[in-house]
User: Fold this.
Amino acid sequence: MPDTRYAVAAVLVSAAVTWALRALPFAALTPLRNSATVQYLSTRMPAGVMLILLAYCLRDLPLTHASTLAPLAALSTTVGLHVWRRNALLSILGGTAVHVLLTSTVFTR
Assistant:
């Protein structure tokens, strides 16, 4: 059985390290909030991240296979809903519903 003082010390050190690791990002971001670079990236990064995710998700689609139509129809639905309503939740749910519907009923393997 380990010594009680040792166990208490281990718990306190673990708690201090956990607290420090959670507080460190906030302390590091405080001076960056007024930075012009960070403000520029905050406006440009969301679109860039979405383009990277799009390329990653569609990179292995075989263009000659009929099942490719399901993700492309879902993508078209998502973009169309977002352009029409400018509502991210509606766009995501609509595109997901179209993809699930097409892959589970029309394009079953």
About this structure: Residues 44 and 75 are 21 Å apart (CA to CA). The helical segments are 4-29, 36-58, 69-85, 88-106. The first helix runs from residue 4 to 29. The chain has a mean pLDDT of 90.
